[in-house]
Amino acid sequence: MSAEQILGLATGLVFGFLLQRGGLIRFEKQVGMLLLRDFTVLKFMLSAIVVGMVGIILLSHIGLISLAHRPLNMGSLIVGGSLFGIGWALTGLCPGTSMGALGEGRLHALFSIGGMLAGAMLFSRSFDFLQGTVMTWGNLGSLWCCRRNRHHKPGRHARSCRSLCAVPAPPRKTRNVIDKRASMRYN
Questions:
Q1: pLDDT digits (tens, 9 = 90+) for 60-86
Q2: What is the chain's percent helix, strand, coil content, to nearest 5?
Q3: Domain check: are 27 and 47 in the same one?
Q4: Distance CA 167, CA 161 (A)
Q5: pLDDT tens digits along 152-173
Q6: Residues 56 and 19 in one domain
């Protein structure tokens, strides 16, 4: 096993332990979240997202990792998010909690895991078709624009980029100067 695999296994075990200790593997907690009655799952996931986000940004700034940004595609988000939500609502488990539930001995988690595997297989088999259809709907391109003091690149999504980053763009004349300085400083 490589160091990356060991680190992945260790973080997965810690995450699963925290899910189990927080009671998030329980069907009642998951359904309570979906019915907007119990926000324990939401609090836990928002905490995990913030910790992960800060960690990734710090690792990126010190140069231990490099980020590869994918374009924002609304068709993929809507179809994939809908399928994820339907599966979560039907089984009461999401991918992380289904693995934790299986580790706890709850055999109904096998249905969720089977659904995930079937969905991954179906996606891989239909990727060529999806690439020409769903993956072209609402393609907004890369919206990552504020990394390391670089503002958005001129293009058709400049307005949405400014609003997402909440950083006012410099005047068009100075934009190229800022990009050149930033590329000299960080490259």
A1: 899 888 887 777 889 999 999 999 989
A2: 70, 5, 30
A3: yes
A4: 9
A5: 444 444 444 444 444 344 444 4
A6: yes
